Amino acid sequence: MLQLVPDRPALCHDKACIVDLLVRITPPRPQEKRERPGINLSLVVDRSGSMQGEKISLTRKAAALAVKSLGKDDRLSIVSFANDVKTVVGSTRVSDKETLLKHIDRIEAYGSTALFDGWKGGAAQACLALDDRHLNRVVLLTDGQANVGETNPDTICSEVHRLSQRGLQTTTLGFGKDYHEGLLRSMAASGGGNHFFVETPEQLVRFMELELDGLAATLGTRVRLRFHRQLEGIEIEPLGEVQATPEGDYQLADLTVDFPLQLLFRVTLPAGQIPSSGLSAELLWHSPITGQSQHLEVHLELPRLSAHERAALPVEPEVEICLAVAMAARARIEAMQAMKRGDRAAATRILGQAVATRKLPDLEKAQLRQLQNTVESGDANSTQKMFEAQSYAYSRGSVVLGAIEEQLLSGWIDGGLVPLRYGPLFRQGPGASPALQRFEGMLAGLFTGHPTGESAVLCLETLRTVTGANRFLPWIGTFFKRLATVSVVQPSPALSAFRANVDAGESFMSCGVKASDCGALCRVAPLLLARRRSPSASHWVFVAMGGHITHNDPASAASCMAFANLLWELMLADGPPSSRFYLQRFLEILGQVEKDDLYASTAPRYDGWKGRLSDYLHMLIPDARQRGMTFEEARQEWGCGPFLLETVPTLLYLLECYGHQPVVALRQATSNTPEAAWLGPLVGAAVGALHGPIPGWELKGEVALAYQEFLAQQTS
Fold it and tell me: For residue 652, how far is the Cα from the chain centroid?
C-alpha cells in the first residue's frame, strides 16, 4: 500500500547523494464485498440573489442526486443561506426520499451571502450525527463571496480545521466566476476535503456525482504522510505543488479504491556504509470501517555504491515521469505569476512548453491544455480559479480530483490527441436512462448478429468491464490492457497494430492506430452501459475513448459518436421512427464532431470520389432513395466491407428499409457470410435497442453471465 521508489536503486557510501524519491500509496481493493461505511452528509447551498435562474435549478438537481445516491441508513441534512440561514432538512436518515426531494424543490434564491453562517449551520447539523464509523462531510456550494457576518478567512478556516480534527471534512464547490477561490481552497484544505471549480452549469451535477462516488469508495480519511529522520544531515524538499502542514506532515486526499496517490520529494542523504538510509515514511489515516486510527511505516533501505557507480545506474522510469509532472506543476505556478503581472503571452508560452514535455502523461497534458486555453481566452478570473482547483488536487497527491471526464476530453480534443471536434454533444447528457429491457435487447441483437469472431470477443470483454457506475480514469487504464490481451483467433490488422503499440509501452491515449475500419464501431453498444446509473455527458467520453484506444482515426471516432447517439435515441423511442430518421440523426451528430479529413471511395460507381464521410452519406443514400434501390441493390453497388465508407451507408440504408422489422433486418445483415462479422452486430444492436428482446434472440453462455454480473452491480 505504501512504497518508496528511488530514482536509482542504490545510495552512496563515499559522499552524500541526492535522491528523487517517489512515494506511492495504492489503496487496496477489498478482497470481498463488504458494506461501505455509513455517510453523514450535510449540503450547504448558497441561495443568494446571484444564484437565481439556471444556477439554483441545477443546484436543486445536484441536491436531488445526493438524495437518490444515498442509502436508507445514511444521514442527510440540507442548509441554505443568503443573508439568513435556513435548515431545509434537519439531520435525518434518508428513508423518505420523496419528502426530501419536495423540500429541495422549495429552495429559492434571493438576498446576500452569509457564507460562514451557512457553513456553520450545515456543520452543526452534521455534528448531530458525527460518528467515527461514518464518512462525515459538509459540501458547500456557492457562487459568491462572504459578505454578511464573519468574512475573515483566517477565522473561518480555523473553525473548519477545528471540526476536521473531530472527523468532519469540508468540500467546497465554487460556481462561476465571482466566488473567492482563495477562501474556498483554504476551507477545503483546512477541512481535509476536495475543492472544485464549477466552470459551467452543466458541470455542477457531475462534480456532485464525483464527490458522492468518492465517498462511496473511501477507505480512509484524514490522510497524512510523515517522514522520520534517524540520521543528521537528511534534507527533504517536496517537488511540484506538495506543501507541508505547519506540523511538518503532508495532508493528502482520501484513500479511495482505484485511485492511487503519488508524491515526489528530493531527498539529500548522508554517506554511509550500511544499507539503511536513516529515513522512513509513515502513512497515517482514519478508517471509517473500523472507526480507528491506522498507520503504516516503510523504511528506505538500499545497497551502497560509489557516487560514480550509482550515477551509472539507469533511472527508474516512473520517477522520471513523476519528475516531469512536478516540473509541469511548477510551470503552472510560474504561468499564474505571469498572469498576475498581466503578461498573458508569457503564461501561454510557459504552459505550452510544459505541455510539450516528452514524458508528461496524457492526463496532465489534458489539464495543462485546459488551463492554457483559459489563459489564451484572456479570462484572468476563470484562469485563477481553474489554477487553484488543479493545484489543490495535485498538492494532495491526486490529479484526478481536479478533473471530470468532460473536461479531460475537451483538453484531449483541443490538443489534437483525439480526432474529433468538441461539439454540443459533449456538453449535454443523453437524457433519461432507457429501461434495462432495451439495453438487454441491444446486447441480444449485437451478439445474435454475429456470436463469434473478433467483434464478439472484444464486445464481450467490454461488457465484462462495465458496471453502470464506472469511474473513467481507473476504467480506461484497465480496459485498453484487457483488449490487448484477450484471445482472438486471426486478429485484424488494426487489432494487431494496436496490440503492438500496447506491447511497446504506449499509453491509452497513443496506442490507437489510424484505421478507418468498423472495428471500434462494433464495440459502441456495451460502452453505453458504462455509466447507465447516472446519464450525463460522461457517457460520450466513455464512447469516444473506448473507440479511440484502438482506432486513432477521424472517421472511426465520429462514427462511434453518431452511432452511440443513435442507439440511445432508439432505446428511448416509443416505437419505430420514420425511415429517414436514421440518416438524419447520424448526420446531425457527424456535423457536430466530424473533422475535415478526406477519404476515397472504393465503390466502382464512385471511383475517384474523395471527401468526408458525411459528404459521402449525403450523396449515396438520397440518391438510392431517388432511384428506388432495394437494400440488396445498394449493397451490391456500394460494397459492404469493413471500410467505414462501405459499412456506414449500408448499415443506415438497411435500417431505413427494415428497421421496423427486426427479424428481417438481421436476416439481411447476416445473409452474406463475410459481411456478417461487422454488419450483423451493428444492425442487431440497433434493432434490439429499438424493439427490446426479440423471441429467439437470447443472451447465452459467457455473454449471459457477463450481463448477469452487470445486473448484480446495478443493485450493489
Answer: 31
Got the DSSP string for 485-496?
A: HS--SS--HHHH
Map residue 185 onto helix, strand or coil.
Answer: helix
For 659-691, write each residue's pLDDT tens digit.
999 999 999 999 887 888 999 999 999 999 999
Residue 420, domain member (yes or no): no
Listed in sequence order, the residues at least 6 apart from 67 whose beta carbon sits closer than 8 Å to its beta carbon are: 76, 94, 97, 100, 101, 104
Strands of the sheet with 192-198, listed across from one edge? 85-93, 75-81, 38-46, 134-142, 168-175, 192-198
Measured CA distances, 593 to 426, 554, 587 (Å): 9, 9, 10
Q: Is the pLDDT of residue 716 over 70?
A: no
List the CATH number of the domain containing 658. 1.10.4080.10
Final residue in a domain of this structure, among 310, 335, 363: 310
**Which CATH number is 102's domain given?**
3.40.50.410
Order of strands across the sheet that contains 235-238:
2-6, 17-25, 261-269, 235-238
- Rounded to an integer, what distance in angstroms lies between the CA atom of residue 90 and that of residue 77? 5
Distance CA 407, CA 474 (A): 16
C-alpha cell of 129? 450525527
Do 210 and 225 sit in the same domain of this protein? no
> Of 310, 334, 351, which marks where a domain is finished?
310
Residue with cell 485563477: 384
What's the pLDDT tens digit per position in 346-380?
999 999 999 888 888 877 888 888 888 889 888 88
Please give the Cα distance from 334 to 150 (Å, whole number).
Answer: 33
Nearest of 567, 314, 609, 315 to residue 442 by alpha carbon: 567
Q: Is the C-alpha dihedral spanning 494, 500, 501, 506 positive or negative?
A: positive
Whether residue 423 lies inside any domain: the answer is no
Q: Which three cell numbers stand for residue 579?
A: 425511415
Q: Which residue shows C-alpha cell 458547500?
A: 140
**Contact present, 680 and 450 (Cβ < 8 Å):** yes
CB 119 within 8 A of CB 151: no
With CA atoms as reference, report the closest residue to 692 among 701, 684, 700.
Answer: 684
- 683's CB contacts (< 8 A; 6+ apart) are 445, 449, 651, 654, 655, 665, 666, 668, 669
Buried b vs exposed e over 42-79: b needs ≥16 C-beta within 10 Å?
A: bbbbbbbebbeeebbebbbebbbbbbebbeeebbbbbb
What is the DSSP pairing of strand 17-25 with strand 85-93? unpaired
Q: Name the phi and psi angles at 245, rounded to 5.
A: -75, 170
Express each pLDDT in 689-715 by its tens digit.
999 999 999 899 999 999 999 998 875
Residue 664 has a CB neighbour count (10 Å cut-off) of 15
Q: Which three cell numbers stand for residue 697?
A: 434472440
Whole domain around residue 73: which residue ranges? 38-216
Which run of H or of E encompasses 340? helix 317-340
The mean pLDDT of 234-252, rounded to a whole number, is: 88
Total structural domains within the chain = 4
Residue 544 CA to residue 509 CA, distance in Å, equals: 11
| pLDDT for res 205 | 76
pTM of the shown model:
0.79
696 CB-contact burial (10 Å; exposed 0-12 / middle 13-18 / buried 19+): exposed
Residue 6 has pLDDT above 90, yes or no: yes
Three-state DSSP state, 313: coil
Inside any domain, residue 265: yes
- Using pLDDT thresholds of 50, 70 and 90, give the confidence band for residue 31: low
- Confirm if 106 and 154 have CB atoms less than 8 A apart: no
Strands (E), 275-350: 276-287, 292-301, 304-305
β-sheet bridge partners, residue 6: 21
